Amino acid sequence: MRKVLTTIALVIGFIITYFFQVNIFSSLTIGGVRPNLFIIYFLFIGLFGNQFLGTIFGIIFGIFLDSVYGSVIGVSAVMFCVIGFLGSYFDRNFSKENKITIILMTIGATFIFETGKYFLSSIILDYDREFLKFIKIVLIEILYNSLLTIILYPIIQKIGYSVDRTYKRNNILTRYF
Questions:
Q1: Distance CA 116, CA 74 (A)
Q2: Which of 58, 67, 135, 155 could form a disulfide with 80, with the two C-beta atoms 3.0–4.6 Å apart?
Q3: What is the DSSP string of 36-54?
Q4: What is the DSSP letter of 22?
Q5: Domains, the chain
Q6: Of 122 and 176, the one with more pLDDT
Q7: What is the pTM of this model?
Q8: Alpha carbon distance 36, 110 (integer Å)
């Protein structure tokens, strides 16, 4: 029952993230670039949830985001799936308690997402690749996402450990004879 409630809370969290991304951060841009809160959100699910949850949420909500405002359906789904999986990989190999580690994870996830999405979209849509413009956009978005991660870190950590207790709690009963 607790997992169902936590999953519903994560869906509501996605709706809130979508609201902030579309309504608030669409007008708050730096050099014409807005942050991608969804990268932070799916990295958060991969870090504090589990591998299955991060991957499934990335696919389902990536398809939703592609259908709402994507040019090709499936590209964001694949990349958000990779970010959810990457979050679970980071969870196994790095510490979540350190703010600098979380910021570095956000930087890496943003770079991987934007690079993968750029190259997948350019292959599918067959458009010219402009690397200097792409690098400028990625660097600004990395900076923006990192600043938001620093600001949102206490909230992410508090909610994250609640999700972590729900999905990663050891449910094995030991017997003492």
A1: 12
A2: 58
A3: -HHHHHHHHHHHHS-HHHH
A4: I
A5: 2-167 (1.10.1760)
A6: 122
A7: 0.89
A8: 8
